[in-house]
Amino acid sequence: MKKLFLLCVILFLSGTLKAQSDWKSISYFKTNGLNELSEKKYCIVTVSRTGTGNVEIFDSSKAENYKFSMTVKEMKKFNKKIKKSGIYKINQDSLKSGLSGSENVKGPYSNMTITLEYTKEQIEEMKRENEEKEKNPVLLIPADYNRKYIYSVSRLFDAVENIVPDDIRNKTELLKK
User: Fold this and answer.
1) pLDDT category, 167, cuts 50, 70, 90?
2) CA distance 70 to 164
3) Is-contact 114 138, C-beta < 8 A?
4) Is the model's pTM score more than 0.90?
């Protein structure tokens, strides 16, 4: 019986560890882009590397907050989609379009902040190589991102929208499929 219990604990821990990635949290913002206060709508999806998430939905008359969590299997799938998006390979400076902020974006738009998590070994290696990432543990994907990266950014935005459970997603047209 003890062996079975130990085996279950080991399997659980190995599954949890494999689901972790090199990001600490992700914050995704999406708006309908309307400036009229009575028509303005936006939502913020926040996900932590532990698999917990939060969706805040705002419109002219109300604000709602919903929590969700992902299984280890869902986290693995999500992490795989983030890596497949190719976002880690894109230079932060080249991701910017050259415009000056989201006020130049007409209509609906989205942006994202990914807070990165580095191991001590990675930090030491970056110090040796004097990489810029050492100074910037945050990856910003602006609303006015360089359209050269539309494929990578679209995949990333879709991955975040798709982790939100259907019952929450259906509460706002901003996240509906």
Assistant:
1) very high
2) 9
3) yes
4) no
